[in-house]
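User: I've been trying to design a sequence by hand for this structure and keep getting stuck. Would you show me what you'd pick, starting by listing the structure so we're on the same page?

Assistant: Good idea, let's start from the same input. This is the structure you sent:
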C-alpha cells in the first residue's frame, strides 16, 4: 500500500492533535461538572437563584474566552528572557 504525502502528513497530524483534543475535551467537561457542584452550595450561601448563578458562570466563560488570546500575546511579548518555562 503506497501512501501519498498528503495521507502520511494527515496521519501524523491526527496522531499528534487528536490525543490532545480529547484530553482538552475531557478536562473541559470535568471543569463544567465542578462548576455545577459548586453551584449547589454556593447558590444558597450567596443567596443566588439558579438563573443568576447561570448568568454569572456564563459571564466568567465569555470573559475567559475573550481575554485568553490577548493575554497570551502580551505574555509572549513581555516574558523575561530567563526563568520563563518557554526559554
Amino acid at each position: 500500500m503506497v501512501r501519498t504525502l498528503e495521507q502520511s502528513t494527515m496521519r501524523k497530524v491526527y496522531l499528534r492533535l487528536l490525543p490532545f483534543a480529547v484530553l482538552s475535551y475531557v478536562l473541559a467537561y470535568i471543569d463544567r461538572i465542578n462548576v455545577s457542584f459548586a453551584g449547589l452550595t454556593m447558590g444558597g450561601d450567596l443567596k443566588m437563584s439558579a438563573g443568576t448563578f447561570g448568568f454569572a458562570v456564563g459571564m466568567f466563560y465569555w470573559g475567559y474566552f475573550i481575554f485568553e488570546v490577548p493575554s497570551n500575546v502580551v505574555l509572549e511579548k513581555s516574558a523575561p528572557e530567563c526563568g520563563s518555562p518557554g526559554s
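That's my pick for every position. To get oriented when you compare it with your attempt: The two ends are 42 Å apart (CA to CA). Residues 5-78 form one domain.
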